[in-house]
Amino acid sequence: MSRTRDPIASTTIARLYLAQGHRRKAARMLEALIERDPADGAALHLRERLEATTVPTVTAAVDDEQLEVTWESVRAQPQRHVVIVSFLGDRARPRTVVTSVACEDAAGACTFERPREPGSASICVGFVGPGGFVAEAVTSPLVWSNGEADEA
């Protein structure tokens, strides 16, 4: 995807953004600089430093209709996934549902239709490593009844 060329984009401005706590603006500027010149050593180095200090996060919210999951600062390699584990129904007849969505970008969102029956969900972002699944970021558990949603 080609971005509009920012005539004042520079690593100096990206550093100023970082100094002011604007990590996303700095990251976007660095990506634009690297897109313009993939061999820009200063931009590549600063992006690497920014990525090394960035922690993946995942958040989730549930309402009467859907479950929305958002993530930030997810690295592409190895491929990360948002994994949702839902426990549905009552204690006498519980049902478990597991699903995952690939994180194609460092930040993103996805929505799922919320099951009609009461339940709860645990959501994380992670990857499959040599020893199995590695969770990098986890949300607070979500709980919902037939008509209402709550955070546990």
Describe it.
This protein is of the alpha+beta class and 152 residues long. The protein has two domains: 11-52, no CATH class; 57-151, Immunoglobulins (Immunoglobulin-like, Sandwich). Helix content is 23%, strand content 39%. It has three helices and nine strands; from the N terminus they run αααβββββββββ. The chain has helices at 11-19, 23-36, 41-52, and strands at residues 57-62, 66-72, 81-88, 95-102, 108-113, 119-129, 132-138, 142-144, 149-151. The strands form two sheets. Strands 3, 4, 6, 7, 8 and 9 form a six-stranded antiparallel beta sheet that branches. A three-stranded antiparallel beta sheet has the order 1-2-5, with no helix packed on it. A hairpin with a 2-residue loop joins strand 6 and strand 7. Helix 1 (11-19) runs antiparallel to helix 2 (23-36) and helix 2 packs antiparallel against helix 3. The radius of gyration is 19 Å and the shape is elongated.
Any key phrases for this structure?
152 residues, alpha+beta, Immunoglobulin-like, 2 domains, 6-stranded antiparallel sheet, 3-stranded antiparallel sheet, 23% helix, 39% strand
User: SS-based structural class?
Assistant: alpha+beta
Proportion of beta-strand residues:
35-45%
Question: For the residues shown, what is the average pLDDT?
Answer: 83
Biggest beta sheet summary: 6 strands, antiparallel
N/C terminus separation: 40 Å
Q: What global shape is seen?
A: elongated
The number of helical elements comes to: 3
Please tell me the CATH architecture of the largest domain by its name: Sandwich
Helical proportion, percent range: 10-25%
CATH homologous group name of the largest domain: Immunoglobulins
- Radius of gyration using CA atoms only: 19 Å
Query: Which consecutive residue ranges, at least 5 long each, have pLDDT under 50?
Result: none
Count of strand segments: 9
Q: Given this structure, which CATH class of the largest domain is correct?
A: Mainly Beta
Number of spatially distinct domains: 2
The H-and-E topology, N to C, reads as HHHEEEEEEEEE
